[in-house]
């Protein structure tokens, strides 16, 4: 039995969800319009603005750059974040308490500040390649997600299983891949998705690291909007939403969607 | 031996954070104290400028209003979601997760279409005869706040659904069986138990709005400059890196103060800890 909810509260909730989903429906509608200006409801259905994305070379280039950066930085973050999360949980008593704080620092430091600091003290100071700076910035951005999500999965892991394997003669690396990793599989998938989506949508770090020749998709969208307010941006937005839907479908099939609410 | 391997496993991550986050951020803040004009010169000039004080005050105002509205909407909605039957709850959670996973540029852009001079809201209001001619909605403080609320409500809902679900049903039933009206149960049982979650949500929303860039840039523009957009302008348009570093330092300090203050309040208010 649960207590009754006041009808006014239900009406309110309905409005909140219209408020949440409505604007995205409007973006999709505008992307399908056959007009040269943004309008909703769409006038005459057309996919010409989707074709226009790929006709603009800056969009083609930045889509590829953004995907590369998202994959590489997510991969690096998993590679260094999983062992870190493991160490923080397995050797909690031996390791100092500040170490776990250190891994949430990227969340505490405003992204804009991190972006600017990396530009000033790394990219500009050592004239480091922009692509490398972007990878470093994005890896730092997503690392806390890996550590937090994997730590949550490890919290319910019984480390004595691992000790049993080792005491029976299993080498450490083999133990990691056959005992530990399968047990935190759902955490790894969730971390991958959160990192990938966060990286692909990032503005605040990338905005300082883009220059002639290299840019990411969200920054290119901003640049395009400054000059044209046509449905192209709406159709790029729809592409990004389609990517999100695809990713959510993967979560749904592997973990169930309520997983994300945890 | 075990201690050694713990450090070994954590060291690549530690090194990355120290070298590429802690060091550059501290170095950036340090430069603001090492200008030839004296140790606090950049701060004196920041707070001495009426324009910059206005920007700081506007940012605080926008973040505060956004936080309060997002808290109210998020709490009430999360309450309904947490009491919804299983299938409906899944759908509602998907409907909240989806905007959250959609990028900030896309979500801000949606509000540009809605609030523009020839946007949907204006044309609807004109055709209904409620207003004579389109109003200026874009590039106002209201536009920034609406888009920020839109940005953060899903986060608030998802944070609070977890908190509200973890409140044992027994407590609510006990309250009801002792004669409390639903509204009294809501105020005296559910709300106090949700306070720690509300504080976590408030910290996320306040710090997020305070350091936002894309949304105020797109919906506020030059006329509604906030700390984030001012910092970008100083760094990348005017190339005054000392000024940009000063703004960065102020943002870091305010973020840390808010986080520390709120976690302290959360600890004190947590009824479970007493």
TrEMBL record, chain A:
Claim: Zinc-finger is one of the keywords in the record: no
GO cellular component, as recorded: plasma membrane
InterPro entries, A to Z: MetI-like, MetI-like_sf
Ranges for domain ABC transmembrane type-1: 63-251
This protein's UniProt keywords: Cell inner membrane, Cell membrane, Membrane, Transmembrane, Transmembrane helix, Transport
GO process terms (BP): transmembrane transport
Main location: membrane
Keyword Cell membrane: yes
UniProt feature coiled coil, ranges: none
Family statement drawn from the similarity comment of this UniProt entry: Belongs to the binding-protein-dependent transport system permease family.
Name the UniProt record assigns to this protein: Putative spermidine/putrescine transport system permease protein
Source species of the chain: Devosia limi DSM 17137
Automatic annotation (TrEMBL), chain B:
Residue spans crossing the bilayer: 12-35, 55-79, 91-114, 143-168, 189-215, 235-262
A Pfam family this chain is assigned to: BPD_transp_1
CDD domains assigned to the protein according to its UniProt record, in alphabetical order: TM_PBP2 (cd06261)
GO biological process: transmembrane transport
Signal peptide interval: none
UniProt keyword annotation of DNA damage present: no
SUPFAM superfamilies xref list: MetI-like (SSF161098)
Keywords assigned by UniProt, alphabetized: Cell membrane, Membrane, Transmembrane, Transmembrane helix, Transport
Keyword Isomerase: no
Main location group: membrane
Entry's localization field: Cell membrane
Annotated membrane topology: Multi-pass membrane protein
Coiled-coil parts of chain: none
Top-level division of the source organism's lineage: Bacteria
GO cellular component, as recorded: plasma membrane
Residue ranges annotated for the ABC transmembrane type-1 domain, each copy included: 56-262
Family of this protein: Belongs to the binding-protein-dependent transport system permease family. CysTW subfamily.
Protein name, as recorded: Putative spermidine/putrescine transport system permease protein
């Amino acid at each position: 039995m649960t207590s009754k909810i006041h009808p006014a509260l239900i009406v309110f909730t309905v409005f909140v969800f219209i408020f949440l989903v409505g604007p995205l429906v409007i973006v999709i509608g505008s992307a399908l319009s056959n007009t040269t200006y943004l309008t909703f409801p769409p006038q005459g259905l057309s996919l010409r603005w989707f074709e226009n994305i790929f006709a603009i070379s800056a969009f083609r280039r930045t889509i590829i750059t953004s995907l590369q950066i998202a994959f590489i930085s997510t991969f690096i973050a998993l590679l260094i974040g999983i062992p870190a999360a493991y160490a923080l949980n397995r050797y909690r008593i031996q390791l100092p308490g500040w170490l776990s704080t250190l891994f949430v620092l990227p969340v505490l430091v405003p992204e804009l500040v991190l972006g600017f600091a990396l530009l000033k003290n790394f990219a500009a100071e050592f004239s480091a390649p922009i692509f490398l700076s972007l990878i470093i910035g994005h890896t730092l951005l997503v690392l806390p997600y890996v550590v937090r999500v994997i730590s949550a999965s490890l919290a319910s892991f019984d480390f004595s299983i691992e000790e049993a394997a080792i005491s029976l003669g299993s080498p450490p690396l083999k133990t990691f891949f056959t005992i530990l990793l399968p047990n935190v599989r759902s955490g790894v998938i969730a971390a991958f998705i959160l990192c990938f989506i966060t990286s692909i949508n990032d503005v605040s770090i990338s905005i300082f690291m883009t220059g002639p020749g290299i840019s990411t998709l969200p920054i290119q969208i901003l640049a395009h909007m400054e000059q044209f307010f046509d449905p192209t941006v709406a159709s790029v937005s729809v592409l990004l939403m389609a990517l999100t839907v695809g990713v959510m479908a993967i979560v749904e099939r592997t973990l169930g969607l309520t997983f994300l609410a945890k | 031996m075990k201690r050694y391997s713990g450090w070994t496993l954590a060291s690549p991550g530690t090194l990355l954070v120290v070298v590429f986050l802690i060091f550059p951020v501290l170095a950036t803040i340090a430069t603001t104290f090492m200008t030839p004009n004296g140790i606090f010169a950049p701060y004196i000039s920041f707070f001495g400028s009426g324009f910059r004080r206005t920007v700081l005050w506007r940012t605080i105002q926008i973040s505060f209003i956004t936080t309060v509205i997002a808290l109210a909407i998020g709490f009430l909605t999360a309450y309904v979601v947490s009491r919804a039957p299983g299938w409906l709850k899944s759908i509602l959670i998907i409907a909240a997760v989806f905007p959250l996973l959609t990028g900030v540029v896309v979500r801000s852009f949606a509000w540009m279409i809605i609030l523009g001079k020839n946007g949907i809201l204006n044309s609807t209001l004109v055709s209904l005869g409620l207003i004579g001619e389109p109003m200026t909605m874009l590039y106002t403080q209201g536009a920034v706040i609406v888009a920020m609320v839109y940005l953060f409500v899903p986060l608030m809902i998802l944070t609070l659904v977890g908190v509200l679900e973890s409140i044992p049903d027994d407590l609510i039933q006990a309250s009801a069986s002792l004669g409390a009206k639903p509204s009294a149960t809501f105020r005296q049982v559910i709300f106090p138990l949700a306070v720690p979650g509300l504080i976590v949500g408030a910290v996320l929303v306040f710090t997020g709005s305070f350091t936002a860039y894309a949304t105020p840039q797109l919906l506020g523009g030059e006329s509604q400059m906030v700390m984030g957009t001012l910092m970008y302008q100083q760094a990348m348009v005017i190339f005054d890196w000392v000024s940009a570093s000063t703004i960065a330092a102020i943002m870091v300090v305010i973020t840390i103060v808010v986080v520390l203050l709120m976690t302290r309040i959360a600890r004190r208010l947590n009824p479970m800890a007493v």
